[in-house]
Each structure stands twice: as structure tokens, then as C-alpha cells.
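Moderator note: this is an archived Q&A kept for reference. The question asked for a predicted structure of one protein chain; the sequence and the answer are reproduced below.
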Amino acid sequence: MSEPAKKAIFLSYAREDTDAARRIADALRSSGVEVWFDQNELRGGDAWDQKIRGQIKDCTLFLPIVSAHTQDRGEGYFRLEWKLASERTHLMAEGVPFISPIVVDETSEAGAVVPPEFMRVQWTRLRGALPTSQFVEQVQRLLASPRRSAASAEAAPTAAAPLSSAKAAPSPMRFAVAALGIVVLALVAYIALRSPAKESPASVAAPKPIAESKPSAPPPSTAPKVTDKSIAVLPFTKMSDEKDASAFFADGVHEDILTNLALARDLKVVSRTTVTQYRDSKKTLRQIGEELGVAYILEGSVRRVGNKVRVTGQLINARTDEHVWAKSYDRDLTDIFAIQASLSQEIASALAATLTPQAQKFIERRPTENPVAYDAYLKGRDSRNRSRTGQLAPTRQQEAFFQSAVDQDPNFAAAWGELAVVHALNVFWEFDHTPARLAQADAAIGRAVRLAPDAPDVIRSLGTYAYYAYRDYARATEQYEKLAKLQPNDPTVFNSLSLIQRRQGRWADSLSNVRRALELDPANISYTRNLLSTLTMLRRWDDAIATQRRLVTLLPQELVEQAEVQRLTYLATGSRKESDAWFASLSPAQLNSPKMISMRKGYAAALGDFSEFKRLDQLQPFYDGDGTPHSRQAADAAGNYFIYGDAAAALARLGNFPAEVRAQLEREPTNVKLWSDLSWMEVILGHKDEALRCARKASELLPESLDAFDGPRYSIYLADTLVWAGDKDRAVAEYARLLRVAGTGGTLNTSYMKSNAFYAPLRGDPRWEALINDAKNNALQTER
């Protein structure tokens, strides 16, 4: 066999699997692999046929995507591609890797409708078509495999065949990559038309690493080679009698050690949120090591009694169960940083990991000499790790803890940085958009930078502050890139860059970075939520639904996660069948929980079931579980009474909230959410001109040019106001524009627009009917 002209991959797929193929192609291309993948889905024609035949003849690897779609289709151009690839293997020497099937769903190999050549090699499973770093490494190894000629093969007939050898003897071995356990704590209002999407900040919580099934026989495996410089530090066992102290303190010590180890550039360290799932696990260390892809595991415990602390740690070779060493430290509480530094250095030394002088300096630092301040700091960090961003109560709790930390030690730079982030989140989420709050953020970050300008935790806080307090994307990017140089495998860098890039309208870059963050921290729920919200905004429905289904497996007890699958299915298809069946499957106790009543109320309103909405609204006027202000809930509810013609009920539901919002705007004149809320209230009150003024003000404060993620939402609200202010021509024209804007999929959707009574004034207008019945308007949009 002659050497192919290019080390390229040919990706073969059925048209129904286009999105899955695109994800795989993007992941491989981002790692420098050349992929031949036609995104225009051209089929037929002599020129096209010759191009495909030539690429299959010249490619180095042929990756066919196998799925339920390929099973269902007895005919298709992909089957010709499969046949051509199979025929090419007949000319190849034994042991040449060429065909490597990828299964993207639950399709079983037994009974798979594929050529027999496909059954002679091991298959890769990427459920949900989520390419992992292990998968990319596997492909790169296959590309790098020696391409032996027939003559050399004859000279060495006993050479072991690579995994994807086209003529290997049939084997029961399977290479399986378990789906990433990731996704989103769903929108609490089940289908709240005007409820803004939220995002998770740079440093938060996590999903499940890739578990690889091992071959049952010794021939070569595609599982990535575990490097000796890889470790998972399991959550420390809490041995203290003081339950409260045991919880946050042991977890704080654990996180600080992980942060120290991340400074070793050549050391693979599994993230905190990914190892958290192994707390109290019954699995063997060898099993855990295999699932996490690491050579070593550190187990430890923390016992704290009064001003004394005992930390133990034992380093274990996960491949052999051999104990490398065991350490025990009995010190005063004030020596906790020395303990953490010593453990970190011992681990780095045992694994021959390099610590630069700068890294050594950071590891040996003592952030504070005050144990009371450190306690408050750890409690604040623990609250941050356990909560979802964009909620008022946890934010207030964190502010109190970090403020206490700096009150106890005014020189505690890391605590000042965290306090600055909390103040910035108050500004960003409009909890307190006053000049005074912004000044507090400025002062806190200024103090942190003056105290420790080069510390990684301060650099991270500065980037997050710049993003949330000022939407200063350039400065935030600069800080995260600086952090990447210190900690190149830190997932917070990539997640943070992803958040910035989607605000800039750089959707492809944003998706690439959040997926990179999830490769490094695959169990991180917050990162998964960010991925899900981006996919939803782009109307990438299949990807979004697959991501949400993984969330359900990760959080099986959360009904809200199951509800979100139904919501996304409705957005994608307009079908109520799945959601109606799901609601019917719930018990009375489940249906009548406060959270579920809130979701059911939103669902009824969105689908035009006014009597059910009214019944549930009277049963539960407000829901406090997600931090949504009562004024906003009242405006949304009043709007439903209003559009159904019950003006008296609408005014009663509004109550005194319009006056309260106007008073709040006097204090917070740049609070975009308040301007938007007031615009809808003014519509209900019959003040059309004032409603338009408020809606325009919101759109001017956060234009699409400043924020491609949230900005379109306020353009939509302006169009909504135009509907009820009587300017139907401009409203229809604006909706037509916005439906083609990337970043509107989570707020503007033709399924809603067909069923929701909000749009009743436009029904019957030929332009409107054409708009909502054009399938392209609910399809993927990638350009603004």
C-alpha cells in the first residue's frame, strides 16, 4: 500500500447525524487533525462522487458514525462510503489501522447493519457524540501508527496488529467510552417566556470522567496510556467530632492541595469536582484509577480539635495497589498551610513533577496568619462551591463570610479577591446595581491586587471581577490568559473564556472552550450548564437535549432536570406529547411541590391553558426557590391576566409593584432588568408610550453589540412591547430579524409563538403566519 498523501481522516455519517459529526470534526480539528467532512451535506453528482471516492482512497483513517439513524436507513450515500472503505481494506496489509467505527448512541454491535469489515475491529462509544480528550488522543495515535507496505508486512507476519487493524481476527473486545456526566440545573420556571438565562461563573462545581471498559484479552488497547505523572486526590475523610468544622475545613484543605498541585505544569491533576463523586465510594482504588485515567491516588483525612489539626495522607499506585508512602502531620491550626505545602511537595517529588521557583513560592505562601479569617474564607468558598450562581440568598451568605475574613485579617488578599467577585455578581445579576455596590467591588479588588498581584487566586478574581462588574472583556481575557501560563490545565480558564466569547458573539470559540473545560473537569455541572445554555441559544436542539439527558443521569432525583428535557423537546419540535406524558407520570406529591407548581404554571401559560394557569397562580402567587424578585413574578402573572382580557385581575396582581420598581430605578438607573420589568408593567397599566420608552432604555443599556448573549433578549422585549403598543408592522419586522440572530434560541421560539396567547394580536397577519411556520426560523443560527 502506498503512503497516503495526507494524514487525514474521512468522517462518514448519515445526514441525520450531521450535528454529531460536526462535534467530532470540530474536536479533532482543534487538536490539529485534518478531517474530511462535508458540512454542506451534498449528495450525488459526478464531481461529488469522484471527490468522495478520491478522499476515501487517500485518507489515513476512515471513521464511520454508527447510530440508530444508520440502522434505520437501508439506503444512503453513507452506505456507499462504507462499501468503498471496506473494499480498500482488501488491498491493505495485515495490521494497518484504517476503519474505526464510532457509536454515538445506544446502538449495539450485535445485529448492527454494517459491513463485515466493521465487525473485525474494536468500536469506540461516544454517547451523545461528545468527543473526549481520550478519544482525540486515540485518533492521534492511530494516525501516527506505522503505515506498513505489503512487503514489510510479509517480512514480519507475526507483528501485533494495531487495534483498528482492518483484517484483525474477530474479537469480543470492546473499547467503550462512557458518556460525559454533565449538564444544567434547569430553568426553574418551566416555560417562563421572559425568564432570562443564567450562567455559572469561572470557579464552580462538576460531571463524571470518562470510564473506559478494558479489553478482555491482552492485545493492544486504545485506552490512553496512563502517564506516571498523573494523580487524583480523593476528598479527605472528615474525622472531627465537630461536624460543621469537619465539613468545610476538610474540603478546604483538599481544595488547597489540588490548587497547589495544579502549579506543576507537567502533572495531570484530576479536578476537585470530578473527584468529589468518589467521596465514600465503595470502588477499589484500582477501579477509580482506571476510571480517572491516573497512575496515583492520594487518600487522606483531617481531624480538627480545638487549635490542633491532624492531616494524614497516603500515596498509592493505583495500577498495583502499592502504598508508595504514608504521611501524618500533627500541628497547630496555624500551621495548616505548611501541612498543605509539605503534602503537595511530597506528591510532586514522588511523581517527579517539576515545580518552578515561582510555583514553589506560591505553594509555600501563607495567605493569612489568622485561623478565624481562614475559617470564614473556607466557609465562603464552600458556599460558592455548593450553590448556583445568579441566586440572591447564597450570594449574600458568601458576602458575609468573605467580609468576615477580611475584617479578621485586612491583609488576606485571596479573601479580598473573592469579596470583589461577590460584589461584582451583585452588580451583574442586578441584585444591587447601585454606584455604592460597584465602588465596593472596586475597592475590594484594588486591595487584593495591591497585596498579591501575582497570586493565581487574585489573578482569577481580577478576571472574574472585570467580566461581571464592567463587562470588560479585554481585561478579563488578559487575566485568564495570564492564569493559563501559571496553570495551563486549569479548566476555569477555558470556561471563563467561553463565557466572554459568547458575549462577544464568538459562538464557535465559546463552544470549543467550554468543551475543553469539560474535558479537564468532566463532572462539572456549572460548566455543563454553560454549554447547555449556549447550545439552546444557538438552537442546537439535538445537542442540547442530549446534554440535558446527561444532567438527568447525573442528578436523578431532581425533577426539574427531567422537566427541562421536556421543555427542550417542545422547543425543538412543538410537540406536547412528551411533556404531557411526563407530567401524567408524576405522583400527587411531586406535582404539588412548590417548585413543580411554579413549573406547571409557566407551562400552562406558555401553552395557552389560561384556566390552569389561573388556578395555579391563585394556589401559589409567588415562588422563592430561584431568587426571582416578586415584582418580576407579579409582572409576568399580571401579563397573563392582561392578555386574556381580565384587566381587573391584572391590575390587582400588579399591586404596588410598579411604584416600587420606579423607586428602585431612582437608585439604580442602569439596572436593565428593572427597565424591562417596568416596560411590561406600563403596558398592563395602559401607558403605551412610557412602556416603549422603558423597553428602549433597556435595549440601549444592553445592546446586542455589547452582549451577544443577553443583548438580543432585550431586543426581543422591545419587540414584545411593540406588539401591545399597537405597532404590529415594526414588531413583525423585528421578530423576523431576531429569529435569524444567533443567541435568541432560548427566548424566541416558533413553538411558543404558535401557541402562546401573548402573540394573539398578530395572528392572521400573513407576514406573521409565514414567519412562525418557516422551519428555518427554529433551526441552527451561527451568524448574526
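Archived answer notes: The radius of gyration is 28 Å.
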